[in-house]
Amino acid sequence: MYTAVIVDDELKICQLIRCLGDWEKLGIEIIDICQDGETAVESILRNRPDIVLTDIRMPVYDGLEIISQVRERELDTSFIVISGYRQFEYARQALKYGVVDFLVKPIGQDDLNAALRKAVEEIIDQDNVKRVNSLLCDKEKRDKESLLQKAVEEEDAFWPEEVRKAESLFAGDVFQAVFLKTNRKELNRKESKLFESAGRYLEECMPEEMEKIIVSKADGLYLLMNYAGERGQEIRRALYEVLKRVERENEIYGQFGVSVGVGAAVDEIGKMKSSIRTAKEAWQQRITSDRKDLIVYGEKTAGSTEKQQLFSETEWREFRSLLENCSLQGTAGMIDQLEITVQSSRQISAASLLEAVRQVVFMVETALAEEAHTDKSRDVEEVMEEFRCCDTISDLFLHLKLFVNNSIQTYQEKKQSMKMFPIRKAEEYLAGNYMKDVSLEEMAQIVELSPAYFSRLFKQVEGINYIDYLTQIRINNAKNMLKNTTVSVKTIAAEVGYGNEKYFRKLFKKEVGIRPSEYRKLH
Which among 204, 229, 230, 451 could bridge 444 via Cys, Cβ 3.0 to 4.6 Å? Predict the structure, then answer.
């Protein structure tokens, strides 16, 4: 149903228009009748009708002034102008405002209804155009968001053809990435409620008309923007407001720090990956920078970006040797030396520092795993995430020393456990098979070791050699049988693995100090 307002200072003209129009047939409802221009403007702005029929000559505002004021408010109302004057000048001015039709008094029924049909058709055309434009805008928005999303998600660079097609979609001359993350690993999860709140703050604080997409990933929260260059300061102020709001979440999640890295501003969508990379680097530079809140890549406060080697090849070989020898003191000393180098130079970049830490982590995880003949216990990236969340150089090196120290101790425990395993397996086997003739060679085969290594390892773990251990088990079982049964010594000897009774008696006295018969009498 369409709505209409009739405007004429003569009430009988208004009533005539009401009577002559095929309102119901055309699906039009008259919602107001006004008799002066001022009242008409107020009604139109309040009710926002689809169609207005207005006389030219009226008190306060004439018909052309009414149309002018409504058009200034950018309403899509369709106007039909009515006048008792035939001057071409009125028609010309009315057409300038985009009126649907121009009717001359006295109004004929056919002319009125033709004008009303024309107004309805115009409204339908406008609605169709709006719908098509809306669909095109939605598609364009989806296309832009898809491309920005790929910049974060895809490992490879954009395809040139895809980038070329996308250039015309973006109005702003600047493309830029922002990276937000806290110093607490457990809060930096894709599904984190804190990240959900931070994403909402980014949406609320950044300029509404700016092209943007917010992506939450496992390593942090990304904001990708396209905007006009002169809005740079406005965007920076908005980012400070986001930081302020996120920091208020301390009341919910406990004490944490949050930082924002702003990537390099680039001039085309194809370079967005570079802005993403530098935004992450800027965030990471807070470790070596005095700034902890908002760090802009390339600014002096962001710290150095130049990469350097902090250990020589000789020093790395020495560190690995100390690791393999499980030297807690030696490895701690070299890490202290590395910290002194970093702390004494203000030119060390966060990238260089973290690369050195990564090498330490990789060496610890691989060298100790190789020594223990096991797979790496943890993924290097998983471990590195703990170090990236450190706020200061001192904090990072404290964590690094603890990591190396704990890794060595864990390795030693694991190595000891690995040594114990074949011996425990041998002991379990002997507990149920001590009466059999199980030689050292046969037992070594059962536990899948060489006889020489098994013999050496068995004595290292148990403190006695294999044969003596087997003898102890047999004699202990013989003693138990002597105490709790009345079977003969000959039978007991056979049951614990000795077919020669005489040899058993001699061995028993040697191990226990008395003969089997005497042991039975005493117990």
Answer: 451
Residue of 229 and 372 predicted with greater confidence: 229
**DSSP run (H or E) holding 132:** helix 109-153
| Phi, psi values for residue 176, rounded to 5° | -155, 145
The CA distance from 7 to 99, in Å, is: 15
pLDDT of residue 376: 47
| Spatial distance between the Cα atoms of 407 and 328, rounded to a whole number of angstroms | 10
CA-nearest of 396, 411, 395 to 363 is: 411
- Span 356-382, average pLDDT: 70
What are the beta bridge partners of residue 260?
180, 294
Mapping DSSP to helix (H, G, I), strand (E, B) and coil, where does residue 83 land? strand
Amino acid at 294: L
Question: Is the separation of the CB atoms in 171 and 211 below 8 Å?
Answer: yes
Structure tokens at 403: 């990591």
What's the rounded Cα separation, in Å, for the pair 67 and 79? 8
Q: At what angle do helices 350-371 and 393-433 cross, to 10 degrees?
A: 10
Residue 381, amino acid: E
Strand ranges of the sheet holding 51-55, from the earlier edge strand across to the other edge: 28-34, 2-7, 51-55, 78-83, 101-104
Take residue 77 and report the two structure tokens written for it: 């109302």
pLDDT on residue 374: 44
**C-alpha distance from residue 359 to each of 38, 200, 400, 406, 408 (Å):** 79, 37, 11, 17, 16
Mean pLDDT of 208-236: 85
**pLDDT beyond 90 at 415:** no
| Interatomic CA distance for residues 337 and 394, integer angstroms | 13
3-state secondary structure of 200: helix
Check whether the bond before 59 is cis (ω within 30° of 0): no
Percent of the chain scoring above 90 in pLDDT: 20
Percent of the chain whose predicted confidence (pLDDT) is above 70: 84
